Amino acid sequence: MSAPAGPAANRFFSMNAHLLEEANKVILEPQILINAVSRRVRQLTAGSRPMVEVGVRMGLADIALAEIAQGKLTVAKAAA
Question: Which pLDDT does position 1 carry in this prediction?
Fold first, then answer.
């Protein structure tokens, strides 16, 4: 499956810099943050409901970042 092109791509892949900064304060490791946002975007695409209030111009990545920043979405540490 290929990524959407044109204006629809912005809905999936654009990120608000402020939300990114706030989420990065909660999940300090960039790779873990990227993985969490990616997984949540897939869940939202599949029909999961957002756990935060959604603004007019929020893309799916923005929703995932807002959920992380507001503590609604957490990442569990993997067992060794």
Answer: 42
CB atoms within 10 A of CB 14: 13
Q: List, for residues 47-68, the tens digit of each pLDDT value.
A: 999 999 998 889 999 999 999 9
Say if CB 44 and CB 67 are below 8 A apart.
no
How confident is the model over 67-73, as a mean pLDDT?
A: 96
Hey, where are the domains in the chain? 10-69
User: Per residue in 28-49, pLDDT tens?
Assistant: 999 999 999 999 999 999 999 9
Contact present, 64 and 15 (Cβ < 8 Å): no
Q: Are 14 and 62 in contact (CB under 8 A)?
A: yes
Rounded to whole angstroms, the Cα distance separating 48 from 24 reads: 23
Structure tokens at 54: 């959604």
